[in-house]
Design a protein that fits this description.
The complex is a heterodimer of chains A (253) and B (363). With 253 residues, chain A is α/β, with parallel strands linked by helices. Chain A has a domain of 148 residues: Rossmann fold (3-Layer(aba) Sandwich). Chain A has a 9-stranded mixed β-sheet, with helices on both faces. In chain A, strand 9 and strand 10 form a beta hairpin. By secondary structure, chain B is an alpha+beta fold. Chain B is 30% helix and 24% strand. Chain B contains 12 helices and 12 strands. In chain B, a hairpin with a 4-residue loop joins strand 10 and strand 11. Chain B starts with a strand and ends with a strand. Classes of the chains: A alpha/beta (253), B alpha+beta (363). Strand 5 of chain A pairs antiparallel with strand 5 of chain B.
């Protein structure tokens, strides 16, 4: 395919010149566009991600106590990607709420669900990682190390984003490899329901991010997970004073 | 229709990479056969036995189910119903369906349970999503319009028949003989003849995705891969539809976003349970809370327990919203309630004939 002459070491000339001629510098683009290496996430979730987007080839874990919104958060991670034309898959969510998924912004035309993969969950996720851009997988219980390694490696190799939903007691340790990025849902509180009146309007949630790719920083974010619209939204300033920690904005000391 | 006990082993439904499932399932069948010699495998992970004899011997169907649960030595759920189809679903739901109650039991299940993806898509386009709705169609028009196989499905949905082509894996006996080491020449299961339909105007990304989906279908079965659709309906279960991959028009959403009288306000629950979970709801004195004919609660709610789990304090609730639905044959009165418990979890509950069910989880 490519001409290759043995014994002809790459000369400095064959590399990218350090100084581009004037007029060209603002017209060149890297061979892999930045947009091609990342997948968009909904705006309110962008502060949780280095670079503000979901990087292809990485593994993101989403942990939380059952019923505390980890499913909502994990589905939300697929919303902007599917809406901008990427195919996504959700493996092992036994009873996905399709209306909720649509409300979060997922384009249901490009989201395939494999609700009951049984013992084949890792294999199914592996198959899908080679064909779609983002795979959300919920392992039944704690994943085996080999399965976790294999899937993370497959995601890297196929440049797909792997999102792992961990709702068991093990929390983030349910994925023995650990994720490049680890999101976890902390304190939550539903709004809108009294003793016999109102209706569920939204859930306040504290979401923390850590992990290898969090670059040492530990960010917290207060979100509506979901808001009344059904989508995720930043929770800012409309609650009582001192309600939740600051976002990840610059710490004005 | 013969009354059957079905043993459903969720871990043994598919052959794993090490191929030990068939061996383990062969042991399950052998152990069940010790209780009842007429035990027969239906497909990998599912076996059935006639209920009548063992029920007489062990003192009731509950006793048979309990005996089997202990005897099989694998994670298994057990159900009893008239006919194989209903008995399999009963096993998945861990229920004993009373004789003659088949049609009522089947009514809320999705038409997807028939494992007829094409028919399911066609029916869902007509707004028929449950077996109850299918059963309500006149038999003659079903067979005229959809053909002989659909007529069989219709009879099953009505609780008139329990057998459906494809329900039994014809190769299972042989496979188990192989697993027991009785037959050395072992062949792989034949590849599925189903070619999935395809979206028009496919891009390279669509084709890549389709290839991956076909791989998963080859691994887990045609019905394993689903697309979501939103349609009109009052409750999340009716609005959320999962259609098998291959539907040419899974995108368009009839009724999506349209105002629907009595519909719950958003946000929608992220987990809609296919099989509702039993719940108990009590007041401060520990008495069961009921909804009156006028749609009022008998007392303020204090505690809730799901699936006979621990009691949890209720911190808030909304409703009840009474819904008198036009159901497939009869009118049934239900009411819905959103309940938030002390652990911060919100659930959607439904009550019907004095029994509470968890329909969905706002996860």
């Amino acid at each position: 395919m490519f001409a290759f002459q043995p014994g002809d070491p790459p000369s400095p000339r064959s590399r990218e010149p350090r100084v581009l001629p004037p007029g060209l510098a603002d017209r060149v683009r890297p061979t892999t566009p930045v947009a091609g290496r990342t997948l968009p996430v909904p705006g309110p979730l962008a502060p949780l991600f280095p670079g503000g987007s979901l990087r292809r080839g990485t593994t993101t874990t989403v942990a939380g106590r059952p019923g505390h919104g980890a499913t909502t958060l994990a589905l939300a991670l697929l919303a902007a990607a599917s809406a901008s034309g990427s195919w996504c898959a959700a493996v092992g969510l036994p009873d996905p709420g399709v209306v909720a998924a649509a409300g979060l912004g997922l384009d249901l035309r490009r989201v395939v669900f494999v609700p009951h993969p049984g013992n084949g969950w890792a294999e199914a996720a592996g198959d899908l990682l080679s064909g779609v851009d983002a795979v959300l997988v919920r392992p039944p219980g704690r994943a085996r190390l080999t399965a976790a390694r294999h899937l993370s490696a497959r995601a890297r190799e196929r440049q797909a984003a792997l999102v792992v939903l961990l709702e068991g007691d093990a929390g983030a340790s349910g994925w023995p490899e650990g994720g490049d990025l680890a999101l976890s849902v902390g304190e939550v509180a539903w709004e809108g329901v009294g003793r016999g009146h109102g209706h569920l309007r939204g859930r306040r949630a504290e979401v923390r991010v850590s992990g290898r790719r969090a670059a040492g920083r530990r960010t917290e974010c207060s979100l509506w997970l979901p808001a009344q619209s059904g989508a995720v939204a930043l929770l800012e300033g409309d609650g009582p004073a001192g309600d939740g920690p600051e976002g990840d904005g610059p710490e004005a000391a | 229709m013969e009354r059957l006990v079905v043993v459903w082993c969720p871990e043994l439904l598919e052959e794993g990479p090490r191929g030990e499932e068939a061996r383990r399932f062969a042991r399950v069948v052998a152990r069940a056969a010790e209780l009842c010699p007429w035990t027969h495998p239906v497909r990998l992970g599912v076996c059935a036995l006639p209920a009548r004899g063992p029920a007489r011997f062990f003192g009731g169907e509950e006793a048979v189910a309990a005996q089997l649960a202990v005897a099989v030595g694998e994670q298994a759920t057990i159900g009893v119903a008239d006919g194989l189809f209903a008995a399999v679903l009963a096993a998945r739901a861990e229920l004993i369906v009373p004789p003659g109650g088949t049609a009522d039991f089947l009514a809320p299940w999705s038409v997807a349970t028939l494992a007829r993806p094409d028919l399911a898509v066609t029916l869902q386009r007509l707004g028929i999503t449950t077996l109850g709705q299918l059963a309500a169609l006149p038999a003659a028009s079903v067979s005229d319009r959809f053909g002989a196989d659909a007529a069989l499905c219709h009879a099953v949905a009505r609780g008139e028949s329990g057998e459906l082509p494809g329900l039994r894996d014809r190769g299972i006996e042989r496979r188990l003989r192989v697993a027991r080491g009785e037959d050395p020449d072992r062949g792989d299961a034949p590849p599925s003849p189903f070619q999935p339909g395809f979206f028009g105007g496919a891009s390279e990304a669509d084709r890549r995705a389709a290839r991956a989906v076909v791989k998963v279908q080859a691994r887990l079965g045609i019905e394993a891969v689903l697309l979501g659709r939103v349609q009109g309906g009052r409750d999340p279960a009716a609005q959320s539809v999962l259609v098998p991959w291959g539907s040419p028009d899974a995108a368009s959403a009839p009724g999506a976003g349209a105002p629907w009288p009595g519909r719950l306000p958003p946000p929608a629950p992220a987990e809609v349970l296919r099989v509702p979970r039993r719940a108990e709801v009590v007041d401060a004195d520990g008495r069961a809370v009921a909804v009156s004919g006028r749609g009022l609660l008998s007392a303020p709610i204090e505690l809730v327990s799901v699936d006979e789990g621990p009691w949890q304090a209720v911190t808030g609730w909304a409703g009840p919203w009474p819904v008198t639905e036009r159901w497939w044959a009869t009118r049934r009165r239900t009411a819905r309630l959103q309940i938030v418990t002390e652990d911060g979890v919100a659930r959607l509950l439904r009550t019907e004939r004095g029994q509470w069910w968890v329909e969905a989880l706002y996860d």
